[in-house]
Structure formats: structure tokens, C-alpha cells
Amino acid sequence: MSIAQATLVDRIVPRSLVSDVALVFGGAVLTALAAQVQIPMYPVPMTLQTFAVLLVAATLGAARGAASMGVYLAMGAAGLPVFAGAKALTAVLPTAGYLVGFVAAGFVVGALAARGFTTTPIRVAASFALGSVIIYALGAGWLIVGLGLSFPAALTAGVIPFLIGDALKAVAAATLLPIAWKLVR
Question: Global pTM?
């Protein structure tokens, strides 16, 4: 497997069914823990949930990244308090579009990671930006279709308040991932 095709975790952990299952489950648990970390911001607090979603995808790749987010959703659907504020799925149904966006973003960011998008700060930031756009599009789309909000109201409530926090998360990842690659080489 060439570096351009390998994800960061592939350079550290040999591929096997056992390691894949462990990594997928570990990514789901990491996301659940990160969802509980709130950083006060105005007008809404920022959690590390989306950072974990994109970071898990960037380190695990497309299939494992999307599967990890699927397990995360399944944990919440089973009633485990894994979402922000230690809530289960029934308590966060208004944000279901964002949660589905986690799976889609996990696949896309993971696919980009397998093509070298975790090795330079610009590429990491670009992949995280695209992942965030996917999450926002599905999340705001759900607010429009599922909750009947207008497009401007969905942007005002479900996108704009999170832009600064997500930009900070992308900068953090753009700093950390290339350093991690240097360490594993």
C-alpha cells in the first residue's frame, strides 16, 4: 500500500478484521466522548463532536470512517447517551440531518485521506471544509424539510453559529495531522 493510498492508522496498525472492528468501535467511542466536551462560544457552545467525526475519518479512511459514524448513530439509536449533552437519538431528532451528515462526511473525508489529504495543512483544511459542508448541507436540509424552517432560518440557526468553531477545528487538524504523518514516517 503506497503512502498515497494508506491512511494514517494504516501506517501504525496492521489491517485485519479484528483491528478494523476495534478501530471502527474506537472511533465511535471517541466521537461520543468528544460530543460531551463543550467550549463556550457565542451564540451557541461548540462541541468537539464534528472535530472527532472528521478526525476519525481522516485517520481511518472512507469505509472505516463511515462505519465508525454508523456505529456512533446506532449507539444513540439504541438509547446510549452518546450525542452532545449526553442525549440519545430521540432527544436529538431535530439534528438528525447533521448526524446522517456525519456518515457521509466520514466517507468523503476518509476517501480524501486515502489520497493524501492528511499530509499537508492546506489539504487537511480543504478536506475538513468539504466534510463540514456535507454535514451542514444535510443538517440544514433536515431543518428545512423535516422541521419546516425557511432556508434563511436554517442557515441562521444551523450553520452560521458554528462556522467559527469549525474553522478553528480545521486549523487544529491542519496542524496536527501533518505532524502525525512526520512522526509515523
Answer: 0.90
